[in-house]
């Protein structure tokens, strides 16, 4: 029996028990953490990777070995690896095409999470498959360069160059250049937000999907204190990520290309679907950014999954509540893409 | 822009609906707000002395008790801060689209959705929850010559920060809930004030004290203390319903009000002017300790002869007596009868809500209306209260709307609409219950009664009985159906 089967069975069993009997941590709004996530947190605490003291390569191997066995491998129409050949380098990428007879809703360039230092096409394979299936949109997941070997702005440059490349080759994928959207989770969500904010109007994405993004390296917010320790993503982890990503340029924290919340936004920025989780150190950053965009007049669909934590999209293979959440995100993402492409 | 649910308004009603939707795990909604801030009536009414007539520990969300209220009866500023904090706390701010003034709502039967047109955008939603508020649009009476007046004109609900009353001669028109709050505030600073009174209100003393810091920290450390206080306030107020239902019981309250008047006003001629000639409760009962002392001051005159016309620098009463004034303040309340939003909501038959309603608004439990599918109205007909917190009713209405939405989703039907029979039965019940109450038999004219003389504003019973009746829909009172012609359009959750 695989680990995945065991965890899924466990999830099925605990979800039969009423929440009131289980208790457990509550967030600031009084919602409980999903029971299986408590188990996962316990397990995670036992073999926690000390991000500061391992070699990046080893960390990446470690995360792969943790995440890959959880994959469900959702069925989509077609998946193939491709290479984005830029002038001086080429990036690996993976292209997902939805099945079904209905015409697809454009194409989303997806940027995986992992604190700018880990994560790859395989660790986020399930996320892309599920989004592709539910949103009925093609997805190209991009393997951008990671820190500390390639610090800021390398990852961002890759993301933007990859987006431009897809735009140039849009017709090869059967979509119009004006139907391209961008999306990402966590650090990838940060890159997606920056991409949407900095690209000029003619080659800007038509919509942006930000899954529990980091948006502000400067301002301290309540969720940083409430969930800064012992909940999926720690403040320590964030410090390590920042050190690796920004390296000697710590002052770059204020750069809107690092902290998009500090940037100028106009109402012409791409419509956004912003998703946060109730037990996430980054919850307030995502919410604040959603609020900022709404105030600027951007069309924003905001959803918070109160019972889930940071990185829930990586747990879809083993946790029903996370899976349901990402399905809902996918459907709303499909609707937003359709609507934005039409207008 | 598309959303499953659109909520219009971000006052107490809109915010409660949104929070309760989130509790159900429903995030597919948008709130449209015409101003740039939350707060509804508490954002609009910024006249001096604006405050609530219900104790704050009761006049607050059941899910968001606030230990920090500084007085028993909070002022507007504190209530607005509470609403802002509440919206932020529950993560509702990103869901609110500000500066979206809804101009038109149209039901599209073919698509099974509402088209919501604002001044800037068009939205489409499967469900609409209208939390417009029935005290949102100021009413200014049509007095001849008002447009020729050269001084300043303000209404209590649109009090401008630029308006300065100091050392001015002012005319105050009306003696309703707002007037008795702002007159004592501005009276010491004005040169001369003429208060034009049509009907004197019944006024009871207001037992309003600051809540000491010690008490507040006790509330903060133990939520059950706060709950107990809330329950105590609720029960003491709820008993008063009996008086409204059986006017004979009102004697004690009237004696109390008379004693209050006699103690405050020595001048018998003035006292006679201020003594109501109808049963207490027929119009809204007001609370104040400072109103009578203020209007007995030398610079205040109470005029009961009515306003006949207005000239460029004066107000003329019906005896032809001219009073020169520099400013006119209207405390004439709101368009509570001819509700402005009813004119731009178009239902199934293409008729507007105000056409359907005519002089006599009808609904099912004050929340849904035959001919207006997938639409829930907060603060609808027969949901106002004369005795306790309106927030309590709004929460029950929000729950009613949500239970309707969830019921339709569970049955996989996109359209839900009240049955004609159910609405008729409810209307008949209201009519029967209103008979003999102080509102219909108390001998006064009030905004509680509609143009046909029926009670279509107030809930003629206990507030808990409303909650029991409304917070869940009754299945046999609603019809579920598919979108005509297109069965594939099924709402999924």
UniProtKB/TrEMBL annotation, chain B:
<keyword id="KW-0503">Monooxygenase</keyword>
<keyword id="KW-0274">FAD</keyword>
<keyword id="KW-0560">Oxidoreductase</keyword>
<dbReference type="GO" id="GO:0004497">
    <property type="term" value="F:monooxygenase activity"/>
</dbReference>
<dbReference type="Pfam" id="PF00743">
    <property type="entry name" value="FMO-like"/>
</dbReference>
<protein>
    <submittedName>
        <fullName>Baeyer-Villiger monooxygenase</fullName>
    </submittedName>
</protein>
<keyword id="KW-0285">Flavoprotein</keyword>
<dbReference type="InterPro" id="IPR020946">
    <property type="entry name" value="Flavin_mOase-like"/>
</dbReference>
<dbReference type="InterPro" id="IPR051209">
    <property type="entry name" value="FAD-bind_Monooxygenase_sf"/>
</dbReference>
<dbReference type="InterPro" id="IPR036188">
    <property type="entry name" value="FAD/NAD-bd_sf"/>
</dbReference>
């Amino acid at each position: 029996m695989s680990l995945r089967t065991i965890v899924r069975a466990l999830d099925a069993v605990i979800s039969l028990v009423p929440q009131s009997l289980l208790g457990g941590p509550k967030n600031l709004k009084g919602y409980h953490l999903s029971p299986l996530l408590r188990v996962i947190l316990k397990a995670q605490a036992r073999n926690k990777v000390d991000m500061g003291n391992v070699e990046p390569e080893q960390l990446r191997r470690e995360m792969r070995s943790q995440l890959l066995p959880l994959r469900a491998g959702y069925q989509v129409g077609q998946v193939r690896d491709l290479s984005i050949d830029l002038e001086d380098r080429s990036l690996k990428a993976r292209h997902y095409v939805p099945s079904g007879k209905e015409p697809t809703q454009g194409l989303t360039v997806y940027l995986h999470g992992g604190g700018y230092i880990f994560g790859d096409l395989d660790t986020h394979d399930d996320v892309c498959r599920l989004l592709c299936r539910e949103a009925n949109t093609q997805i190209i997941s991009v393997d951008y360069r990671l820190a500390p070997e390639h610090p800021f702005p390398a990852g961002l440059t890759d993301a933007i160059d990859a987006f431009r490349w897809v735009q140039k080759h849009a017709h090869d994928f059967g979509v119009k250049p004006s139907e391209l959207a961008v999306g990402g989770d966590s650090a990838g969500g940060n890159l997606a937000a920056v991409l949407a904010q900095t690209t000029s109007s003619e080659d800007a994405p038509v919509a942006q999907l930000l899954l529990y993004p980091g948006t502000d390296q400067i301002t301290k917010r309540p969720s940083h204190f409430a969930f800064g320790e012992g909940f999926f993503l720690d403040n320590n982890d964030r410090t390590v990520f920042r050190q690796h990503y920004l390296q000697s340029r710590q002052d770059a924290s204020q750069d809107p290309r690092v902290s998009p919340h500090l940037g100028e936004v106009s109402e012409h920025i791409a419509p956004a679907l912003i998703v946060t989780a109730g037990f996430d150190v980054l919850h307030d950053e995502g919410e604040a950014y959603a609020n900022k965009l709404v105030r600027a007049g951007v069309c924003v669909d905001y959803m918070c999954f109160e019972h889930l934590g940071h990185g829930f999209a990586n747990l879809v293979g083993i946790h029903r509540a996370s899976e349901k959440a990402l399905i809902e995100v996918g459907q709303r993402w499909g609707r937003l893409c359709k609507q934005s492409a039409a207008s | 822009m598309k959303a499953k649910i659109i909520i219009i308004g971000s006052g107490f009603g809109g915010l409660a609906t949104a929070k309760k939707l989130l509790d159900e795990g429903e995030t597919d909604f948008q709130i449209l707000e015409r101003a740039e801030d939350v707060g509804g009536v508490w954002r609009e009414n910024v006249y001096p002395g604006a405050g609530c007539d219900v104790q704050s520990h009761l006049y607050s969300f059941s899910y968001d008790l606030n230990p920090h209220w500084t007085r028993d009866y909070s002022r507007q500023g504190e209530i607005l801060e509470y609403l802002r904090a509440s919206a932020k706390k529950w993560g509702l701010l990103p869901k609110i689209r500000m500066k979206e003034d809804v101009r038109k709502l149209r039901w599209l039967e073919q698509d099974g959705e509402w088209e919501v047109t604002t001044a800037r955008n068009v939205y489409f939603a499967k469900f609409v929850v209208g939390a417009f508020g029935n005290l949102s649009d100021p009413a200014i009476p049509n007095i001849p010559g008002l447009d020729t007046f050269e001084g300043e004109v303000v209404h209590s609900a649109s009090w401008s920060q630029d308006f300065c009353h100091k050392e001015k001669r002012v005319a105050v028109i009306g003696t309703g809930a707002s007037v008795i709050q702002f007159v004592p505030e501005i009276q010491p600073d004005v040169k001369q004030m003429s208060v034009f009174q049509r009907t004197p209100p019944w006024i009871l003393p207001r037992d309003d004290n600051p809540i000491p810091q010690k008490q507040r920290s006790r509330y903060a450390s133990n939520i059950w203390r706060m709950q107990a206080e809330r329950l105590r306030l609720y029960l003491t107020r709820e008993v008063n319903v009996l008086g409204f239902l059986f006017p004979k019981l009102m004697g004690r309250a009237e004696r109390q009000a008379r004693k209050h008047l006699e103690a405050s006003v020595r001048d018998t001629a003035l006292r006679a002017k201020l003594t109501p000639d109808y049963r207490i409760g027929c119009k809204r009962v007001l609370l104040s300790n400072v109103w009578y002392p203020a209007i007995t001051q030398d610079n205040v005159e109470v005029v009961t002869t009515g306003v006949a016309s207005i000239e460029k620098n004066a107000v003329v009463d019906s005896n032809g007596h001219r009073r020169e004034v520099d400013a006119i303040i209207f405390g004439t309340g709101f368009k509570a009868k001819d509700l402005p939003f009813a004119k731009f909501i178009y239902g199934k038959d293409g008729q507007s809500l105000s056409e359907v309603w005519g002089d006599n608004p009808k609904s099912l439990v004050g929340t849904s209306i035959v001919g207006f599918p997938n639409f829930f109205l907060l603060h609808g007909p027969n949901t106002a209260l004369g005795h306790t917190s309106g927030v309590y009713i709004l929460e029950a209405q929000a729950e009613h709307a949500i239970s309707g939405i969830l019921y339709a989703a569970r049955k996989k039907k996109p359209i839900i609409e009240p049955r004609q029979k159910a609405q008729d039965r409810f209307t008949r019940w209201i009519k029967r219950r209103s008979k003999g109450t102080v509102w219909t038999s108390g001998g006064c004219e009030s905004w509680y009664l509609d143009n046909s003389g029926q009670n279509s504003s107030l809930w003629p019973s206990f507030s808990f009985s409303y909650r029991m009746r409304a917070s869940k829909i009754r299945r046999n009172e609603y019809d579920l159906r598919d979108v005509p012609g297109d069965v594939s359009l099924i709402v999924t959750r």
